[in-house]
Amino acid sequence: MKFHKTIGIVGGAGPVASAFLYNTILEVCQKQYKANDYKDFPEIILVSYPFTRGDKERIRKEISLCESKLKQAGASFWCIASNTFHGFLPEIDLPFVNLIFEGLRVAGNAGVTKALILAAQGTIDLKLYEGSSILCVYPSLEDQRLIHQIVREVAGGHTHERQAGIIKGVIDHYDVDGVILACTEIPIIHRSFPLNLSISMPIIDTIEVLAEKLVDLSIDPLKK
User: Fold this and answer.
1) Which residues share a beta bridge with 78?
2) Residue 199 Cα distances to 120, 121, 125, angstroms
3) Digit-coded pLDDT (tens) for 117-137
């Protein structure tokens, strides 16, 4: 396998999830392409930026600044390791890999028609997962409070099996045929304590989906 393109990642929203995306890219290379040497992994440029919270226009400017840094460093294409920030995208120069589109694509391919969206409140408010043929279902206010608490715990470095149990309990409240983990912190729990061990419907891990797409785009098509 030979890589001919450089992956760019805008991270920092939050930093834990950004590091998790980086590690997931490495895991994809190891599991799918048997990578075990330096040359078996793609070149990755990660800009982890301390974004402003609550100021949409300033966030757009900060994302644009990060994209410029990636371009100057030689990134071939880029992504943002955050669902919510897809609602604040500036004008884009480099080719962009959209986490939302990729998550919906994989969900559709898995036969999901009615999905529970487990996400930060900002992603829900922006309705980022709507507009496709998949019907979006959102947690109740009480269930969303539980999800928000778990996200903050993970962002603070705390991951426990109890959190997976709470998420499973939330999922059981809804009549859906799939779940989209639409917050980049929730897949961290899913990777340690797989939700699909007790849930038969498709669980779409958007971090894993994004990592697989990034690796695929970085590989020389003549060397796959």
Assistant:
1) 8, 96
2) 22, 24, 27
3) 999 999 999 999 998 999 999
Is there a contact between 81 and 43 (Cβ–Cβ < 8 Å)? Answer: no
Assigned CATH for 100-205: 3.40.50.1860
Looking at residue 2, what is its pLDDT?
79
Collect contacts of 171-176 with beta carbons under 8 A, ≥24 apart: 171/116, 171/118, 171/195, 171/199, 173/139, 173/140, 173/143, 174/116, 174/137, 174/139, 175/114, 176/114, 176/115, 176/116, 176/137, 176/201
Q: How many CB atoms lie within 10 A of CB 84?
A: 21
- Where, residue-wise, is CATH 3.40.50.1860 in the chain? 7-98+209-218, 100-205
Question: What span, in angstroms and rounded, lies between the C-alpha atoms of 90 and 185?
Answer: 24
Q: Tell the residue number behind the tokens 């950004």, with chain if given.
A: 18
Residue where the block lists tokens 């966030």: 59
* DSSP element (H, E) containing 146: helix 141-155
Confidence (pLDDT) at 182 = 97
CB hemisphere CA count around 193 (13 angstroms): 12
Look at domain 7-98+209-218 and name its CATH class.
alpha beta
Question: What's the rounded mean pLDDT across residues 168-197?
Answer: 96
pLDDT of residue 224: 55
Specify the pairing of strand 114-118 against strand 44-48.
unpaired
Instruction: List pLDDT tens digits, range 81-93.
Output: 999 999 999 999 9
